[in-house]
Write a structure and sequence with these properties.
Blueprint: H1 4-33, E1 40-41, E2 56-59, H2 61-64, E3 70-72, E4 88-91, H3 97-100, E5 102-105, E6 111-116, E7 121-123, H4 139-144, H5 150-174
Parallel strand pairs: 1-3
Antiparallel strand pairs: 2-6, 3-4, 4-7, 5-6
């Protein structure tokens, strides 16, 4: 017979799995559009660890040993989104993680590495339907065209801006 505390832990664990699946589902269109349909996604808490000066997210060594980029959304301990914009963030894999990031222990004694949120890359939201985006042949069409497709155009420009920011960050990391 299962004890009450074991049953409660199981229910809590199931609830967290459901919440994580829902968080992933929210970002799936974006992951699909950037060609990362099966990317490793795990929601994380952003906080300032004791003794560190920056807000960080923590990764377990097992996550970093995967050797892949990690996608995340900032959440509470209960896996509720803490960002009204529901931003998708990318940690670009760093093969020197053991040397470059501070480490510590979780409340349960597990080792954790702290990655500053300033190193994360903001991923622009997916444009929901490319069929609704008008193709423009020149900059003049943008200036002279009608504004009925303005929201679609803004979404496309935001995506371009996000990609340019990603390129700039990668170039800066090479220096």
């Amino acid at each position: 017979m299962m004890s009450i505390s074991t049953t409660a832990k199981k229910k809590k664990s199931e609830l967290y799995r459901e919440k994580m699946a829902s968080l992933r589902e929210y970002h799936q269109d974006t992951l699909d559009q950037i060609g990362e349909s099966t990317a490793y996604f795990y929601p994380k808490m952003a906080y300032k660890p004791i003794g560190l000066e920056e807000v960080c997210i923590g990764f377990f060594p097992s996550e970093l040993r995967k050797g892949t980029d990690i996608y995340t959304e900032f959440v509470s301990r209960e896996y509720d989104s803490e960002d009204p914009e529901r931003t998708l963030w990318k940690f670009q894999f760093n093969p020197h993680w053991q040397e470059e990031y501070a480490n510590g222990e979780t409340s349960t004694g597990s080792e954790i590495y702290y990655v500053p949120v300033s190193e994360l890359i903001k991923i622009p939201k997916a444009v929901k339907s490319a069929r609704n985006v008008k193709t423009l042949n020149s900059f003049e069409e943008i200036l002279q065209g009608d504004t009925s497709d303005e929201s679609s155009l803004v979404q496309v420009l935001e995506k371009i801006n996000g990609n340019l920011e990603l390129i700039a960050k990668r170039l800066n990391n090479r220096k």
